[in-house]
Amino acid sequence: MNTTQKASVGAVVKRYAKRYFITAMSAMAQGLFASLLIGTIFKALGMIPHLDFLADIGTYASAMAGPAMGVAIAHALGAHPLVIFSCAAVGYAANSLGGKGGPLAVFVIAIVAAEIGMLVSKRTKIDIIVTPFVTIFVGALLAMLIAPAINTAAGWVGSLIDWAMTQAPLIMSIVVSVVIGMVLTLPISSAAICSALALTGNLAEGGTEGLAIAGAAAVAGCCAQMIGFAVISFRENKWGGLLSQGIGTSMLQVPNIFRNPAIWIAPTLAAAITGPLAVCVFDLKMYGVAINSGMGTCGLLGPIGMILGWFDPSYGYTGEVTALQWIGLVLVCFILPAVLSLIFDMILRKLGLVKDGDMKLELS
């Protein structure tokens, strides 16, 4: 294979990797956000006296997680309308049969169903029958064949994380905090990954004590990235940048990271510290919905998920919420990421690795 052919193959691989692992996964996260995560917020509001009807709204929204993910993925892939609508059924089947690995099952199966549906879409005079028939048949069949296996595989991974967390909480909390935090900043969905791995102690999601600890470490890592970048780039981006990164997404810094990877060091080192502090010092555990573990301070959903997990009996948290945990939640999610990132950023600037303008955002 000559140089030109290698370059051509590389371009194809890069295009499809972006299509499936960035575009489709990001869309899946949006589907989760518009169903399960919003449902979680409604459930939290439903705990306020006389607003219990909001909890019912939350239940309805959460129940649509599978269809919402399926539709979001198909739409992101540029599917025709009938394919998109049919993927609602595909998402429901994959999420239901996928169990713990429901989001991962939807991700894989909805992509395949949408792509095959597009092969027949608008090719016949009876498109209104052929397209949904083929899309749903392929998706539902795959759901029946492989979603249970994905559930089993996700369970194995979850069990491994659970075991590792209980055996070496210090080391594993650093690993989880750093890795999930970095994933949050990359154009990959940390929320979807946390949901697929069920990083929570939530009984409804098959959670365990070890996964609850892992979820807390993940929250710490995501908050470190978002708050860290928001604070250390304040001199360049002012209040608009602080808000867009602090409660929006640190993904805005990806173009700047490509230009100067050193800017990523400060929030990542902060995550390596706040993760073990959350787990080993403040005894924080995530019992909210697993997707919250990968949200950080985006809409404050990481801390909200943890708080909801403490106080909603159906989630399975049986411990007493202490003052130390409340203090730890504030420190780990907000104060320490800001202070630590500023300290590390100052050192990096002294060393000449980071300079003014390196984190400037193009905010409209």
Key terms for this structure?
single chain, 364 residues, mainly alpha, 2 domains, 14 helices, 74% helix
Q: How does this structure look, described?
A:
The chain has 364 residues and is an all-alpha fold. It folds into two domains: 8-163, no CATH class; 168-364, no CATH class. Helices cover 74% and strands 0% of the residues. It has helices spanning 3-45, 53-63, 65-76, 81-98, 102-120, 127-167, 169-185, 190-197, 209-232, 234-246, 254-259, 265-281, 301-311, 323-350. Helix 3 (65-76) packs across helix 4 (81-98), helix 7 crosses helix 8 (190-197) and helix 9 (209-232) packs antiparallel against helix 10.
Could you list the spans in which at least 5 consecutive residues all have pLDDT below 50? none
Determine the N-to-C terminus distance.
45 Å
Whole-number mean pLDDT: 90
Structural class: mainly alpha
Order of helical and strand elements:
HHHHHHHHHHHHHH
Helical amount: over 70%
Major pleated sheet: none
| Count of domain modules | 2
Radius of gyration: 21 Å
Strand content of the residues, in percent? Answer: under 5%
In DSSP terms (H or I, runs of 4 or more residues), the helix count works out at 14
Q: Name the overall outline.
A: globular
User: Strand tally, please?
Assistant: 0
TL;DR of this structure?
The protein is 74% helix and 0% strand. By secondary structure, the protein is mostly helical.
